[in-house]
């Protein structure tokens, strides 16, 4: 029961955490974080640190309204799994835009947080490109 209380408390605090710590360089308006939708749509919710990032495809012409960018892959060292299957590390893919005001937020090596991931044909991806993670 204490584990469930901590999980519910963590999920209840997520909107506050997100608004108190916006990503660097982010100045556009974004939709408010919909925590119930993130939790519902996630196959995996994990706390961890991004240990490696590499370019999957050198240049992508268009993705989600952005004109150009790169398909990236990252390795996450998992410290705790809140939903989904447990493992020590996992890989996920994301799009890194060449334009800062595109609305897609990626991650960088060394970032620590609570990640919401879903399955796609290409493997795990972010549930929301606007909220790939929140600081844990």
Task: Explain what this protein looks like in three dimensions.
With 136 residues, this protein is an alpha+beta fold. It contains two helices and six strands. The longest helix is centred in the N-terminal third of the chain and has 19 residues. The model has no long low-confidence stretch (mean pLDDT 75).
If you compute it from the alpha carbons, what radius of gyration comes out, rounded to the nearest whole angstrom?
A: 15 Å
Count of individual helical segments: 2
Order of helices and strands: HHEEEEEE
Low-pLDDT segments: none
The SS-based structural class is alpha+beta
What percent of residues adopt helix (DSSP H or I)?
10-25%
For the largest beta-sheet, the strand count, sense and barrel status come to:
6 strands, antiparallel
Offer a quick outline of the entry.
The chain is an alpha+beta fold and 136 residues long. It has 2 helices and 6 strands; from the N terminus they run H-H-E-E-E-E-E-E.
